[in-house]
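Structure (tokenized):
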């Protein structure tokens, strides 16, 4: 299709889509700027992925060249690394499924190995599966601010002194990014990643793309449908973010209540196994010991291996372990180790805990600054530290463990303003939303909000399971059947569906 034909089609689409925003139609027009021809028409050079997970799956990898700034396509370029696992039956091939594993800032080059394993043979026959390290991440041109620790998020601590430490630390992280990455930092955004996806589509020779995204990947997917509705085919959004709450404030605040609920479930597990973990035989006892342990860490950081665990870190350990009930025994063993170390007992740190703490506290092997670059580049955050402090204190009553984490101040409070306004997602592109009621990262209420924003979507609810990321991660026959049927036939359920836990 010629540029003139595509432009006319876009004009027709934008005129017809009353719900489409001006930003969406503008992005579609950008894609047909003749200065972008060299990106859409580039020849991809496929090679071995040199990856222990991708190579056995038969994947090939390549780098796609994209503009750093789409408003200046003749300027600096960067690369986006992608992988491809070919459709198993070329005669039945329908197209490609692009993907995003979440974050923001999560690498996804090997993501479709896991997702593909949940697909039925007739689905695998129809699609090339495309994994992507988004701009700024992994093998793509990286954002690396050389932070002293890996993770930009932390709890604000138990008191005013701890909050002041957090403000200073977050300001320092933002300053390091500004000094290291400079002006290019503002172009690592969700809208530009969506534009990269459309370039990838063109370079692959496809008219449309299907898509599977989880967590933050659902926000990226919904932004793509808003910006490129005529390029969107079969869209699956698993564990979805509310597009109006996405960002460093609203999305984080929404995590507080479901994490406290999940903590109760984990505390019940601990109490039922008190003979192993010795944290008490009732939920209230377990919670009480956790509060005591966090207070102890605030007064004197707990030495465990090479690490000093304080009141900023310990709630993060709990948060990372509550997104999947299958992790409860692992989290219990880790917290038992912290408690033993606090009591002065000799502890040989568990290997997985050692790796987690290395990333949180020591930035090994690379920091997670890409996550903050994308989030802060998407949504402007309030800048007054006292605003965050008031929110933290207000949340402590109902969220004693996580209120100081989910209302934290982030580097975004000290970031340069975004280069573009946020995307308002409101469209009628068909999509399938899959969500558990107990999700601790992207709440069920957020998925319901996305369902309303995508007026032609269907919502598949997994009932009574506190799981984040379902398809390809948490087997459930009902949800798996819904996703596979949609990818196979392109047919959404006639109405929303509720699935029981297996």
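Design, position by position:
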């Amino acid at each position: 299709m010629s540029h003139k034909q595509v432009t006319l089609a876009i004009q027709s689409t934008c005129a017809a889509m009353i719900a489409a925003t001006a930003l969406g139609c503008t992005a579609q027009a950008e894609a047909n700027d003749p200065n972008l021809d060299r990106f859409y028409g580039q020849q991809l050079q496929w090679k071995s992925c040199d990856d222990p997970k991708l190579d056995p799956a038969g994947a090939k990898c390549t780098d796609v060249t994209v503009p750093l700034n789409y408003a200046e396509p003749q300027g600096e370029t960067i690369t986006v690394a992608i992988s491809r696992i070919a459709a198993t039956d070329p005669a039945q091939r329908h197209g490609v499924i692009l993907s995003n594993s979440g974050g923001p800032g999560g690498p996804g080059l090997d993501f479709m190995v896991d997702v593909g394993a949940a697909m039925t043979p007739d689905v695998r026959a129809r699609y090339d599966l495309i994994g992507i390290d988004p701009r700024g991440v992994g093998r793509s041109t990286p954002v690396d601010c050389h932070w002293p620790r890996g993770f930009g998020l932390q709890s604000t601590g138990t008191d005013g002194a701890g909050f002041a430490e957090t403000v200073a630390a977050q300001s320092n992280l933002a300053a390091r990014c500004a000094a290291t990455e400079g002006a290019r930092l503002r172009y690592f955004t969700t809208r530009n990643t969506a534009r990269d996806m459309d370039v990838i589509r063109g370079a692959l020779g496809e008219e449309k793309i299907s898509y599977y995204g989880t967590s933050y990947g659902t926000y990226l997917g919904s932004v793509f449908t808003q910006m490129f509705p005529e390029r969107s085919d079969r869209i699956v959004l698993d564990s979805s973010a509310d597009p109006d709450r996405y960002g460093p404030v609203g999305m984080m605040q929404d995590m507080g209540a479901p994490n406290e609920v999940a903590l109760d479930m984990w505390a019940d597990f601990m109490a039922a196994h008190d003979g192993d973990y010795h944290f008490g035989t009732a939920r209230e006892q377990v919670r009480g010991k956790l509060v005591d342990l966090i207070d102890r860490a605030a007064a004197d950081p707990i030495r465990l291996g090479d690490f000093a665990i304080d009141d900023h870190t310990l709630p993060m350990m709990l948060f990372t372990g509550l997104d999947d009930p299958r992790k409860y025994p692992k989290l219990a063993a880790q917290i038992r180790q912290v408690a033993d170390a606090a009591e002065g007992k000799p502890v040989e740190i568990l290997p997985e805990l050692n790796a987690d703490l290395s990333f949180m506290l020591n930035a090994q092997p690379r920091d997670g600054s890409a996550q903050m670059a994308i989030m802060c580049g998407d949504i402007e955050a309030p800048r007054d530290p006292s605003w965050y402090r008031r929110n933290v204190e207000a949340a402590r009553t109902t969220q004693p463990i996580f209120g100081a984490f989910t209302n934290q101040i982030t580097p975004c409070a000290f970031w340069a303003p975004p280069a573009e306004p946020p995307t308002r997602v409101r469209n009628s592109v068909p999509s399938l939303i899959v969500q558990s009621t107990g999700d601790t990262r992207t709440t069920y209420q957020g998925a319901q909000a996305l369902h309303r924003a995508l007026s032609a979507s269907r919502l598949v609810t997994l009932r009574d399971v506190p799981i984040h990321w379902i398809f390809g991660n948490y087997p459930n026959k009902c949800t798996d059947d819904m996703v596979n049927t949609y990818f196979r036939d392109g047919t959404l359920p006639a109405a929303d569906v509720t699935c029981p836990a297996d």
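Reviewer-requested clarification: The CA atoms of residues 189 and 328 lie 34 Å apart. The chain has a mean pLDDT of 93.
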